[in-house]
Every structure is written in structure tokens, then in C-alpha cells.
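Hi team,

Filling in the usual template for the complex we talked about on Friday. All components are listed, including any nucleic acid strands or ligand strings, so the model treats them as one assembly.

SUBMITTER: L.P.
PURPOSE: interface mapping
COMPONENTS: two
RESIDUES: 833
SEQUENCES:
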Amino acid sequence: MKITTVLQVCVAFVLCSPRAVAGSPVDCPGQDTAGTSCTISIEKLLERAVQHAELIYRFSEDSKLMFDEMLISYGMNLHIPEGTMCAPKTVPVPLSKSEIQEISDKWILHSILILAQFWIDPLVEVQASLESYENVPSALLTRSKWISTKLMSLEQGIIVLIRQILGEGSLALEGPEQTSDRFVSSSKLETVRRDYSVIYCFRKDAHKMQSFLKLLKCRQIDKENCSLF
Amino acid sequence: MRNSGAVLILSFIAKLISQAAGVSAPGKPRLTSCRSPEKETFTCWWEPGYDGGLPTTYALYYRLENSETIYECPDYRTAGDNSCFFNKNDTSLWVNYNITVVATNALGKNISDPVEVDVAYIVQPNTPENVTAVVVDEDQGPFVRVSWEKPRTADTRSGWITLQYQLRVKQKKDKEWEEYDAGMQKYYNVFSLHPDKEFMVQVRCKPDHGFWSEWTQTTYVKMPDYIPRERSLWIMITIFSVFIVLILTWTLNVKRNSVKLCLLPPVPGPKIKGFDKQLLKSGKSEEVFNSLVIQGFPPTIDYDDLLVEYLEVYDNEEQELVLDSKDLSEDCMKSKSPSDCDSGRGSCDSRTLLLEKCMVRREGSRRDQHQYSQHGETSWASTESSECQGLEPGSPEFSDGRVKTWPVVFSSPQPHHHYQVEAVKPVYHSVPEILNHSSPHAMPTNYQNLHHQDIQQQEGRFGKPACRHSQSYTHFNLDGLDTPAPGVSPSRSLEYVEVQRVNLENMLLLRPLSDQNREPEGSDYAGEDYSKVKEVTSNNILLLQRDTSHQCADDYSQAGQCTTQQPPHPCKPVIYQSHSGMPQEGMRVMGNGYVDTTVLMPSY
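RESULT (copied from the run log):
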């Protein structure tokens, strides 16, 4: 136990300080971080995380709508995504409120983290791919760029939250197999389809993240009032 | 081959028969909507197609994404007909449901188009509950506070659903609703509603991602009757009136001169000649009035000067007679200038004047021999030079300008003032030279002294004496000279004589002073030769008594208080009465009634 705690402390120290220098979303106000993690209250952290998730979701919704308009201008109709587009995650994510209320905070946090980590790369790809489109609305480009940026900061925040709430070290990212198909688009249509599916599926996951975080926040702050029925 | 052919033919015949019977397979149903009120359950509704005339059953099947398992709708009843209710256990969020409806009847079935549903995005909450609208009265005016509660099913407390609300208000007669966004709060204050009107209020809500709920039932609220914007109305009235006042003030200011003229008409200033308004305004009243004051008025009499002791009468050849009556009169008459007749004066056509004139004309040196008692100046000078038609006020009888007898008053050659004030100044008398004729029988060159009594200060007007014609005077003189008055010893030496009296012929009866044995009282002389001096006026005019009846034994130095009209005094002038209506002013006229008050009286 001692060793693990020592390891945890070391890891925390390692993680915290460079992150503080790197300007993590969690600001450490000039405290002596030696041996301790950056302390911002959990409430604030959760609030920030919720705001992040809300904004991300809203932007993803706008992006999807814009993409739909763009596709209509192209003459394509892809508004019914194929079921395989949104690949199930390796970690089962709760899909109902009851499920969510049954699972623990740990699970929620982990789920959010998994989701966030899952979508960082695809979003970057889509961002790059969107720029090659014709008549792409600039708002779509800016939004997608913004989403990927914020998603990364959200991921880091979740990590801090995990560390603070759960007291665990950083989770080991799962291997690159998370990345779904990294296919080389053969045709434009495929590329479009892929991009659309990314945006579409990400929108759902963003909503998930938002809902999870809200629920988590309620649980953490106001345990009594948050109904767990 | 034959069987298939037979089957086909049979089916075809069956179809024809069924069509002839009017029954067919059901029409295609259609999913109209799927809704989740709280993001935990959801319901789908479909619309059945043509049932084909046969009883048709409907079944809903769904398939989750990433799964090929087809499930059937767990609950067809809860939500009513043609609906499928998914409870919590069957609801998965963020998962696409592929839902289809199948209609089946005896003749066939029909499948609707599939619909992809993600429960998270079909949330349409129930309507808010317990909408209340109350009127709140405050200083600024009453307003309506609308409050409500969240729909019962929505779990906003845990943050599972975040709802935002919206309300709308209108009057019954209005067409358009007035919408207000209330955000996530559960109350709202509505201001600026019309008083004494009834309003309808409705509320609805929406999740942050989802559909708007239905509007609630209408809640009615009635506004009380109040005066809106009372304070602002008063402020408007005040500002408006202030504005009007400012305009009026400015107009008055611009037109203040004419307003001043209207309200305060200018006071006419004094129009006195010689009156300087500026001096008056400057406040130096003394200077103002000084300019109005005529120097020499009121006449200040130096009484001493009035006391003429002696009357010098020259009996000198060199000295001509003052009067050569006719010649003189002619000359003097000629010399009369017709101008300047002052009414206030006595008759100025007096011989004395003429005398003076003539004398002045002839020799200036004669003056040296004359004694003039000069007191101030009068307008006598004017009388000298002019023919005075002296009119006695109130005595028209003397309008002929009779000249007075005695004495001639000469005025110093001072500028003739037209102001009345100067007339107050005492006229100095210069006792005319009574020249004795150079005739041998002329009267001795005696100085005739006239004792003057104190002359009363003449004030104001002097009665115009009757001016006798100078003729008589001349006569008198001549007579006096020619006929040696009894008692007067003609001598060629200078001797003081006394005027005893003036006779009827206006002759001065003289007697030498040496005759001291004369009775003080006027003895009865010829009566006609003597006149008694009543008094001497302030202008050194001898007022002689006029009494024809008896003589005065008084001392001739004294003048009695006799008037012709009043002979109570025993002293009576002997001289004729030339006129009856003597002027009574100051009792000065007497003697022959010849008082030349012209010299006394300033002309006005």
C-alpha cells in the first residue's frame, strides 16, 4: 500500500506540474504543488466541465445541421446514418437514465473519459477533410475546429476530476485500436459519408457527455436532492 | 408448371373477387411522431392506412442500431390507439431506434417506412403546471406576476433535463400574442399592461435540445383601474408650462419698452421756461430754482434810501425847465414808443415819464443835478421808453393812461426783465427834478423836500393809480412856477422847500422850509395850492391827500390817512378830485388820486 501511495503521489506530482505549466484547463493558482495535486474545488471543476460539455454539444449540433445543408446543396441525402457508423465502444456506456443512475461515479467518469478520448482523433481528421470540400461554410470549419480544441481540454478536465473524485491515477489510454477505421477514402462520396458519420455520431456522444456530467455534478454537489430513482 | 400456373390463376381470380367485394390489403401505415416527455420513456404514434375493408392489425417493430434483433412494441395501450409506449426499461438514449409499423389484415400486410429515432432528441416535455397570475401593486404602478411549476414528469432537479420557459399574454380582443422568454426561472413579471382590462396568459417549456411543449390552459387576470403614468403626466404639464412662461418672459423682455410705455405712460415734464430738468434730476434743487428766481425779487427795500429828505429844485437858468409843457409834451409824446404797455402798471403816459424822457434826451448832465433815489430797478425803464397805457385793473376809467403826478420814478438803466418777479423790487425813485422855471417869477430854486414817510413795502401788485394826464402836472408845475405859491418866497438861492400840497391843478404848492412857523396842521390856504402828502409809497411815490373841502393843517411831512373817498380825516386834500374811483390798493392812492403806482407795481 505504501508503495502504491508513493507511486500515486509521484505520478500525481509528475502529472500535475507539467500540466500546470502547459496551461491545463485546471488552473493551479500559484500554490506549492510539491506533493499535492492542483486544488480547485470539485464544484468548480464540475461546473467547468459541464459548461464545456454543453458548449461542445451545441456546436456539434450546429455542425451537423450545417453539414446537412451542405449535403443538400450537393444533392446527396445521407441524413439516415447507417447503424455501423457509430461503432459501439469497447466500454459499455450506460444508455439510459436508469442505467446511469445505477452506475457509480467512477463509471460515469470513465465513460466520459472514454468518449472524449475516442473522438479527439476523428474530429481532427474530419477537420482536415472538411477544408478540402467545395462550398463549405466557414462557420462549419470554425466550429469543427473549436470542437476538437475544446474536446481536448474537456478530456484533461475529466482526468483531473477522476483524480480528484476517485483519487486514481491517470487511466491508461487504450490502444490505437480505438480509432475506428482509418480508411483511405477512395471516393469523394465515401469521404463525405465518413465525415458525416463522424459529425453525426459525435453529436450523440457529446450529448451523452453533457448528460453524464450534469448528473455527476448533481450527485457530487447535492447528493440528497438528486433523486436516484 | 401446371401447379404454379394454377396458383397464379387462382390468386388472380381471388384478387378479382376480393376487389369486386371491396376488400383489400391494408394500406400503408405511417409513423407520425415519436415523443419522449422526460427523456426516459417515449411514445410513437402512427397513422393507419386504408384498412382494406377488413379488420387490420398493426404491429410496431423496432430495431436498435448496431443490432439486428427486432423487437416488438411492448405496450400498445398506454398511449392510446395506434401508439406504442416504450417504458424506461425499453428506452435507450443516444441509440437510434429503427421503427416500423406493420399493418396486417386477412388479405395482406403492409409495412410502413422505417423511422430513425434517437430518444435524446425527441424530447417534448409536458406543459408547465399550476400557472398563476396575480396583480402586484407597487408605487410605479401595478403589474402582473405570473408563476408556474415545471411539468411533473421532467426531472430538472438532477439536471437530467434542463427546461426553459416561455409565456405569452394578450387581451381577448387582440390578435397577436405578446411573448416573453422567462429562461429557466419559474416566474415572470409583466409590466405595462393596460388598466381595467382582462388578459390571457399561457406558458410553455422546452428542453435545451428538444421540442416546445404545448401551451398551458389560459389563465385570466384582470388589471385594476389606475391612472397610468400619473407622475410623468404631471412632469409633462410642468415642463410645458415652464416653457410657456419662459417664452412669455422672453417676449416681454424683448418688448419691454413698449410695455413700459403702455403701463407707465411718461409723466409730462415741467415746461417752465428756464427750468432745467437735468438739474432737477441731478438733485440739485437749489440750482434749479435759482434759475427761476429773478434777481431782485421780492424787492428788498432799503428803507433808508426811501427816505428822501429833500427834493432839489434847481432854479437855474442853465437848467431848463423840465417842462415846457406843450413842447415837451409834443416832444415827449413823440418820443413815446408805443410798445410795452404793461397792464399792471399804472398809467404810464405820465408826464413824469415824459419828463424823464425829455430830460434824458436833452442833457445827460442835468442828471447830475438831480437827485435820484434809486432803489433797485423796475420795469420803470420800460415805462419810460414807452407809452404806457396803464390800465388799472378794475378801474377802466383810467384806461386813458393818465399819468401820475408824482414823483417820477426813474429806474436805473438796468436790463428790462420781463419777469414779474422783478417788479417786486422796489422802484427807486428819482425824484424828478422840479425845475423852477427860469422865469423870474419862477419859483425859487428850492429844494423841495418831500418827506417821505416810511413807505410800506409794496407787495405784489400795485394798484394802478390813475394817471393823470401829465398835462395837469405840467400845468401844475408851470403853475407852480408861474404862480408863486403863497408862502413860497421865490428866491434864487437854494433853499429847501416843502411841498405843501398839490392843488387841483396838480400844482405842487411849495413852501420853504425856513418857514418853520407854519402850522403843522394844514391851515386853510387857498386850499387849492396845497396838497397834503398822505404817505410815501415804497416806490417813493408821494401819496397825496385829496380833499377838496378843507385843508389839512397837518404837517406836510406827514401824510395822513386820507383818501379821497374817505374823508374821515380832517385833513383833506385840497386838490380837485379828478376822479372818483380811486383805487384802494393799499390806501396809497390819494391826493389828487394820482399815484403813479406804475413804478411801484411790476408788470405781470
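MY TAKE: The CA atoms of residues 269 and 456 of chain B lie 39 Å apart. The mean pLDDT of chain B is 67.

Thanks, L.
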